[in-house]
Amino acid sequence: MTELILALDLLDRKQAARVAESCAPFIDAVKVGYPLVLATGLSIVDDLSGLGLPLIADFKVADIPNTNRLISEAVFSAGFDAIIAHGFVGADAARACVEVAHNHGGAAYIVAEMSHPGATEFFHGGVAERLATLAVSCRADGIIAPATRPDRISRLREIVGEKTIYSPGVGAQGGDLDTVARLVDGVIVGRSIYEAEDPAAEAERLSRIRR
Ligand code: C5P
């Protein structure tokens, strides 16, 4: 079944913990990004680790290999299970994140194409395809591809084969869960869940729609 991953983009520690806890029975992982970590520090991991769900660090890491390695070490030492990195910085830099992830028994995913409208400015014209190819050659565990463009997911699937595809952009950004769930291994949903009047009820509803 397609995984449902909660993008926990909140700025308040207590609210984040409350939303994650209430949604936990209906989701498969929690994605934590800059908004929450910059507001709370990496110690938010301690608040979320009791959920018993994989924690994905969405820091879209994009630096030189040594800095990527240091960032990844900090992420996995804090207790995260996976990291999301950019591939446009080159194979050596992306590989640094993959190696640290694997050394810690974790996973690394490379952004192949983003989900917002402006993403077409740079990711189209063959770039996303090259990033997906790089993800394969770096032995990343998978890629991030846009739920807002199912045709692009299908194209990127041709390149990554059986590797995991996680897809943000369902709901608030306009992506259709039913369509995308057939194409990917996991959908990443943020605002549709955490801004709902009853986040747990919305997570449950989405968990029933996915294939
Ligand atoms: O609120 P919403 O469901 O749009 O959240 C989508 C999440 O996925 C956000 O955390 C966003 O940063 C992230 N993301 C994305 N597009 C990408 C990669 C990550 O929307 N390509």
TrEMBL record:
Active site: D58 (for ompdecase activity), K60 (for ompdecase activity), K60 (proton donor), D63 (for ompdecase activity)
GO biological process: 'de novo' pyrimidine nucleobase biosynthetic process; 'de novo' UMP biosynthetic process
Domain called Orotidine 5'-phosphate decarboxylase: residue spans: 3-206
Keyword Lyase: yes
Domain of life of the native organism: Archaea
Enzyme nomenclature, EC number: 4.1.1.23
UniProt pathway annotation: Pyrimidine metabolism; UMP biosynthesis via de novo pathway; UMP from orotate: step 2/2
Alphabetized InterPro entries for the sequence: Aldolase_TIM (IPR013785), OMPdecase (IPR014732), OMPdecase_arc (IPR047595), OMPdecase_AS (IPR018089), OMPdeCOase_dom (IPR001754), RibuloseP-bd_barrel (IPR011060)
UniProtKB keywords: Decarboxylase, Lyase, Pyrimidine biosynthesis
Function: Catalyzes the decarboxylation of orotidine 5'-monophosphate (OMP) to uridine 5'-monophosphate (UMP).
Protein name listed in UniProt: Orotidine 5'-phosphate decarboxylase
Source species: Methanoculleus bourgensis (strain ATCC 43281 / DSM 3045 / OCM 15 / MS2)
Taxonomy of the source species: Archaea, Methanobacteriati, Methanobacteriota, Stenosarchaea group, Methanomicrobia
